[in-house]
Design a protein that fits this description.
By secondary structure, the protein is mainly beta. The chain has three helices and 16 strands.
């Protein structure tokens, strides 16, 4: 089955849509603070036992840094957060010479810029309608270099597999590989239920189904939960199914099931792909403060 993998860039912006009406964007002060995140993987080709993937370091009500680890226990990299008051304005990954900046217009997020070695490579521009995100325009200034590692502060917006797709689109673009993609949002209550993405003559339609439980990551700009940033934690509620369709009618479907604590916060998320011959199951576990 053809896998489009537009999901990360789209789910990565869902947090904006669901938080706009009640809070300032860029402010993340959850009722329950994540302390550690664990992962495990099983499939027909093998498995990876549960391992510590992230440690979240807090300074009072602000997330100060997130340490990321490989499955063999080594430190992979660290995200470092910079604030203007209580708003996140920058995230640095010093090891990989990457950083992301966030600019605001009043209570809304205006632009996101991703830099590699002090050169801007990705820009996102947000448009609003009646206080909710209606469109996001993404410009890839050098799409042909999209297979490079990206820090988790930008993975939800520019994941590696999406960058590879953009590299293919870049073949139709100018010699510098500049590509622009547009994402149009459809709403049901406080959840985004459809996104139509278009770029270089291609079009992808994404649809989302949700439960009624609490999303602990609502409003968090910088988050990588799961491989390639494919996750469902950027809306008021938690996504239970994601479907992606192209103009030829080919579909790609992911299902999500959860376990919750007594306060309806997820303690485990199981991601599985419909009709996946490899029987791929990716599990994420969350530990909160007491």
């Amino acid at each position: 089955m053809k896998k489009f993998k537009f999901l990360p860039i789209l789910l990565g912006v869902l947090f904006v849509a669901s938080m706009i009406s009640c809070t300032k964007e860029g402010v993340y002060n959850p009722k329950k603070k994540v302390q550690r995140v664990y992962y495990s993987v099983s499939s027909a080709w093998g498995s990876i036992d549960k391992y510590l993937g992230q440690t979240w370091n807090w300074d009072g009500n602000k997330i100060k840094s997130i340490d990321h680890y490989t499955s063999n226990g080594n430190t992979s990299y660290t995200e470092n957060f910079t604030y203007d008051g209580n708003r996140i304005v920058r995230v640095d990954d010093y090891k990989n010479a990457e950083y992301t900046t966030y600019d605001y217009d009043g209570s809304h997020l205006k632009t996101i810029n991703y830099y590699y070695r002090n050169k801007v490579e990705r820009t996102m521009v947000f448009t609003y309608n009646s206080g909710k995100v209606s469109q996001i325009q993404v410009t890839y200034y050098d799409a042909k270099k999209g297979d490079r590692h990206l820090t988790s502060s930008i993975i939800p917006f520019f994941p590696e597999k999406v960058n590879k797709a953009m590299s293919a689109f870049a073949e139709k673009a100018d010699v510098k590989g500049v590509v622009t993609a547009n994402y149009q949002f459809t709403w049901t209550d406080n959840n985004v239920t459809k996104i139509i993405a278009s770029s270089e003559g291609e079009m992808i339609t994404m649809t989302f189904t949700y439960d009624a439980k609490k999303n602990p990551f609502l409003g968090f700009l910088c988050l990588e939960m799961g491989e390639d940033g494919i996750d469902s934690y950027y809306s008021k509620n938690n996504v239970t199914q994601y479907m992606e369709s192209d103009i030829n009618g080919e579909n790609y479907i992911l299902n999500y099931t959860y376990q919750y604590d007594g306060n309806d916060f997820p303690t485990m998320c199981i991601e599985s792909e419909l009709d996946d011959e490899d029987n791929y199951i990716y599990t994420t576990y969350y530990e909160y403060d007491k």
